[in-house]
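the two lines:
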Amino acid sequence: MAENKGRKILVAVDEGEESAYALSWCLNNFISPRNSKDTLILLFAKKPLAVYSAMDSTGYIFSSSIIASMERYGNEVADRVMEKAIRMCKEFSDEVKVETMVENGDPRDVICEVAERLMVDILVMGSHGYGLIKRAFLGSVSNHCAQNVTCPVLIVKKPKPGDAAAH
Amino acid sequence: MAENKGRKILVAVDEGEESAYALSWCLNNFISPRNSKDTLILLFAKKPLAVYSAMDSTGYIFSSSIIASMERYGNEVADRVMEKAIRMCKEFSDEVKVETMVENGDPRDVICEVAERLMVDILVMGSHGYGLIKRAFLGSVSNHCAQNVTCPVLIVKKPKPGDAAAH
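prediction for all of em together
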């Protein structure tokens, strides 16, 4: 199998269940638990704080302590997501090579940019990654990435309970 | 690897180079050449003849012999595509289990319908499948399928010559 060449597999992770399922599916279907030369690159995109001139729509100026605590919250989410993702990889196999990346920016831009920059062999992602409302305006992250990256893209949906095709 | 359970891998094939590349990528990255329990299902969607009341826009009535020869041409394309796809699979490995399906209809509907009906583990397809003009109106086939099937979807783009990420 081509995996013996050592592929770079980029997995976009976020706090959603879809992304955890996508990682798990990728591990179980795409990676050899033993003697694999593949490298799994876990990528978390930290959405930028929308602090327009440090003021919210009600005109209150955010104090620097609020901004700092929002920053801190963003970092905590990143840490939590990464810890969980790494744990999933290690539970799958101790031997799997895992790298992590946390980048600031809109997930759609970050994921495409990293996929191209690292020249990965495949991009794996859940099918969502935004809430329903935001997706309606922006289109789904996976949709955007599938259209804009040059590498193969694997989009994994979490089966809903009762899905006929729930594997 | 989960492949040992015997996965059903649906690959949408058509006359384009994108689809041949997607099949080749799938074979090299997703299938074990030896002792695999996976089944590769090659699906070709035969686009319906747009014979509205057997009359074209100039008012000429298509003779039954023209309709028959168009039908024959469609079958020949299906045969040629399938032969090539099967040959690629056999060149990859003699042991790989291959099934073929030719279904009539719009590729977007056919691919989604078959993926659900057969409850496949993954759908693999090239990123195109329509010409540029038609795609602009209808959206790409892969885009439509990625949004509408419940199973994981792998979309493979053929790298253009000079692509930095051409693997």
